[in-house]
């Protein structure tokens, strides 16, 4: 470049057009010489499939492209790249007649007709597998993977509601038959104090020929807060001989339990009983009997406390 700048500075104005013409000619000769040489070029060729059986599905990934390693003069490669479009290769499943694999060398006549002035050195891959299996679909339950933490005194009131509770899994029958549940991505929530609703993606299939529908899972988490409620209840006796009478002191006890705040008014003393069970009580050596709670409301109660825990008894006939 410096050389040409010196020539331009030392040349007269009238010589410059001649110089530029010489320069253009030199570039043309250089390009002509370069394109006269032979080169390698790798090009992709699309593969299209016809007549895939509707009740079957490939068990191995189907090739969508072939890679051709071409060899030829630069002129031909350039002319091909500028003026010609690649013609795809077609594979008709209706003509395979049970073939499990197709050697790509069988496409050479078609490819050589397309690249007439170029030599095809190699086709990749060497073989296209076409293994098929019966297609199948079924509904499977979903599983929400969770990492959930609640604020102190807050808790999950009921089981998490999922929408949908089942999804459609489709793919090769041998694979679909082995699937009994489909997991979601992990839902992480911390310090929860309110009910939560939202959606989360299901885990993606780990196989190219497996699909799920839908791919998004809705959830609802009901959250409540523990609160305490107390009742004063009569104590009844159980498992005492009919011939015996008993006097308890005291005859009542206080029951304190933790219940959901949202159900505070709904919980009444009708849900609970206090019983003095004499099944394992030695009437001659013991003077007190434990008091036990019996609940008619099996859900959402915790930490029952009875005061007193034992009461005195006096047996008479």
Detail the poorly predicted runs: none
Strand content: over 45%
**Class of secondary structure makeup:** alpha+beta
Element-level helix/strand string? HHEEEHEEHEEEEEEEHEEEEEEEEEEEE
Terminal CA distance: 128 Å
Beta strand count: 24
CATH architecture of the largest domain: Beta Complex
CATH class of the largest domain: Mainly Beta
State the share of residues found in helices, binned by percent: 10-25%
Task: Estimate the mean pLDDT confidence.
Answer: 83
**Global morphology:** elongated
Largest sheet: 8 strands, mixed
What name does the CATH topology of the largest domain carry?
RNA Polymerase Alpha Subunit, Chain A, domain 2
Question: How would you sum up this structure, described in words?
Answer:
Strands 10, 18, 19, 20, 21, 22, 23 and 24 form an eight-stranded mixed β-sheet that branches. The model has no long low-confidence stretch (mean pLDDT 83). This protein has five helices and 24 strands. The chain has 317 residues and is α+β, with helices and mostly antiparallel strands. The protein has helices spanning 2-10, 16-35, 74-83, 108-114, 173-176, and strands at residues 38-50, 56-58, 65-73, 89-92, 101-103, 119-124, 127-129, 132-143, 146-150, 154-156, 161-163, 166-172, 182-183, 187-192, 196-201, 211-213, 216-221, 223-238, 245-249, 252-260, 272-277, 288-295, 302-307, 310-316. The chain folds into four domains: 1-35; 37-130, RNA Polymerase Alpha Subunit, Chain A, domain 2, CATH 2.170.120; 134-221, YbbR-like domain (RNA Polymerase Alpha Subunit, Chain A, domain 2); 225-316, RNA Polymerase Alpha Subunit, Chain A, domain 2 (Beta Complex).
